[in-house]
Design goal:
Number of domains: 4
Strand order of the largest sheet: 1-2-3-4-5-6-7-10
Structural class: alpha/beta
Helix content: 10-25%
CATH topology of the largest domain: TIM Barrel
CATH architecture of the largest domain: Alpha-Beta Barrel
Radius of gyration: 29 Å
Number of strands: 35
Number of helices: 19
Distance between the termini: 39 Å
CATH class of the largest domain: Alpha Beta
Length: 726
Amino acid sequence: MKTELLAPAGDIKCARAALRAGADAIYLGLPAFSARAGAGNFALSEFSETVRLAHLLDAKVYVCLNTLVKESELEAFFESALSAWNLGADALLIQDIFLGKELKRRYPEMVLHLSTQAGCCNVYGAELAKEYGFSRVVLARETPIEDIPAISEIIETEAFVQGALCSSFSGQCYFSSFAGNNSGNRGRCKQPCRKLYSIDRKGFESPAYALSLSDLSVGPRVKELLDAGVTSLKIEGRMRREEYVSAAVHYYRAILAGLKGEIPAWKSALARTYGRGGYTEGLAFGQDNLLSRKVQGHIGERIGTLELKKGKYYCKGIARKGDGFKILRGGEEVGGATCTGEGEGGFYLSSEQKLRAGDEVRITTDTSLAETFRSRSLHLAIWLSLRFVAGEKPQMHCEGYTLTGEEPLQTAERAPLTEDELIRCFQKTDDLPLAPIVEHVETENAFLPKSQLNALRRAFYEGLVAYRTPAREQLAPRTGACTLEPVPSQRTAIIAEDFEGLKADVLILKPRDYARVSPEDVTKGEGEKYLYLPPLLTAADEKLIAPVLPLFDGIFAEGSYGIKLAEKYKKPLFAGAGFNLTNSFAVSNLKAAGAKYFVLSKELSTAEQRKLAAEGAFVLTLGNVKLMDLAYCPFGRTCKSCDRRGEYRLTDEQGRAFPLRRYRLSGKFCRFEVYNCVPLAGYDAGTGALVDASCRSDGAFLLKRAHSPEGALAGATKGHAERSML
């Protein structure tokens, strides 16, 4: 397959902008089950129109059904998937890999892509996706580039090259969910990671955007992704404007085409339409310039420094009246400004804030860009043949499609149709992105009123579009039942970094340093012993843990890759909360894959969990609640001055302190986890009870209260026990 440039379409304007800029494919959401619920998204009528437009341009349309689906929503989900496919979707993006398996069983004709929300980051996740009928995986943004070739040999891969970066590992963020019941896994993230926090480490005590990442911009390094086997280069931004979409597509199209003279101009245009802090090449290539601690939001492109001229704010450079700016001082935003008019060698600005000479001026709204985009819009070249001869029915032909008029043409009495008239008429395509080239015209003494000629032209182009974009053969609804038998359980399990003094059915070791796991660590405590594996597991991580796996009875994994990994090492699997199990098909397919134990989604209510409590089910009932997995250092790799504490406090503007736990796997840099500011004490769900003591030393006490957690911990939250995620 040729390289695909894939663009976001938050609404129909952005879809058209992407297609006209030269995108090979677009991805978009329908009213439900889209991971960007805040985007405009598409009504079915708009979607149908967009599919026809894209297919006319030989581009593809992918539909995002990439949120978690609860049991009560299954019927609506399958209906949405079927509607999208029947209306012409080229592929469906799915987060729930198990629900995708059921969708493929019902409709083998459908093409499925595994969303980045599923967290595919290694060959084991890729193998499972392929086995379940997916034809492509959207790689987790954290996947190291050295691991991508092996994944690409198994299944087609898609990688992000531009746009916003989630602070947490893909599909494993619960911050917005527990902070305000707006689940990122349901497309309703309120971005608490973009707020101000202080950290109790020297040099990080002042409030800053401690978790906010710079925007991704891989730029020319896309060639390395292509060399690694990536097929589709994905631009993030379904919440952004059409100017951004157009600029991003033009920028990467110029890079792919090797148009070195155009690349700087389009890079500048991209920065002006949206850019959060300095760009980063992302975790695939390391951790350079990853954090944007001082600035949050769009800061545009640096254009100069502020001067005071005759009592007015002035800047050298070029700008137009109405252009917008952000003003930075010492790297921090101090206000906004607007261009009020040109001056000699520069322009004047107005601002409601008091600015200073020497402040940095950055353009965030360039009013001339819209004109630039329109002038560079892509149109599909088509070749026409026209025959308008008196006494004959008119004929119009293009690439295998012919339209013949219903009535013979009249003989002209005074002014017959000319070749130039016909060419000018058929060069008008209204809003269609077509560039007609009339290569053959035959006309002889024919007359046709202008209104009828225009109607004939419109009918021809309507027919041509229908010919180039034929309707898909409709699939009829197919059903499938899934019945789970709830099985009450009094089992207990605990996640801890030390087994000393612990007794439970399952003990899950969560090391601070995986390179230091010893047999003595595993022999402590009583119960089955499992090794905790985080959602990001690289090839280097596997090499590190492989020698110690024989010490354990099983594997506790926070990602679906754990199924195939457990098979390889012939270990029982305990599927963690990171599997995001929210419906019966997910639970049933996971059990069929061989999981011995599993944790139901911590975003479901107790009532919802009880309905899914099949044999082997656990629910997180007490202790810490992990909100985020960070595959990077929030201290910007200041290793030489690091005090290397195991735990810090991330404090927000309301004074709430969130534990920030440090640990090491392979690689040069530490990883971190963010936990909720208060512990969890939910209800007994009638299932196995999982206790999380990742940041606690009272594991033995917690185990005693695992099945009656209410009141066990002062100031604890019931989480989603009574209120399911939105």
